[in-house]
Amino acid sequence: MSDEQGKAKAVVLLSGGLDSATVLAIALRDGFDAHALTFAYGQRHHIELKTASTIARRQGCAQHIVQSIDLRCFGGSALTDAIDVPKSGTVAEIAEGIPVTYVPARNTIFLSFALAYAEVIGSTDIFIGVNAVDYSGYPDCRPEFIKAFQSLANLATRAGAIGEAISIHAPLIHMSKAAIISKGASLGVDFGATHSCYDPDHAGLACGRCDSCLLRKEGFTQAGVPDPTKYVP
Question: Are 214 and 91 in contact (CB under 8 A)?
Fold first, then answer.
């Protein structure tokens, strides 16, 4: 379904980080009327909810919904439970395997909500900022997962049943962090408005040592783009 200006609608999962901000910019560049969806899922730090709202407003989303779901009832992740966020000295020291910052089934849950939202607004396009290159420890960031969910979406919805194919767009999935930053910069993304840290202080300053901070820092360095992040001194 298109809006009154003839634009196709898309649901964009917006976390408040640099990846999702870049995906939003890509959806807008491609001519979609972007409907952003952010989750208050019981994460220990809420600064990303503020940054998501700022990004949605600045980049011109048609609508921005913040949906509350509480994954703290399950726990099992350093982002939702009383588990220490791992800190490393360098990107090379980031542990292999599935990290404790993985939130069980999070992207499956988020995409399911996005699918329902898309059906209601008449959209067949969903954008998500998953990436399998720089950080392959999350099983729900793999191309195989996106392909499988798209197949599910087309089997489990009214749109799919009547032949209106639903597409799950993951334009960053094979890109390095540096390439994502370069793409976002070329599209005018304000990275200073984004947040990536898993363990910010009470003022929202990034720790600079968690896996996400290290990957972000290295990405800006490799992209040759100034890092606007405010880190703990």
Answer: yes
Task: For 106-115, write each residue's pLDDT tens digit.
Answer: 999 999 999 9
SS3 158: helix
The CATH code for residues 9-223 is 3.40.50.620
Q: Enter the pTM of the model.
A: 0.94
What are the start-end ranges of the H helices in the chain? 18-29, 47-59, 106-121, 143-156, 158-161, 177-186, 211-223
Interval 36-63: pLDDT, tens: 999 999 998 889 999 999 999 999 999 9
3-state SS, residue 67: strand
Domain spans of the chain, in order of start: 9-223
Distance CA 142, CA 138 (A): 8
CA-closest candidate to residue 204, choices 13, 96, 49: 49
| CA 102 and chain centroid, separation | 13
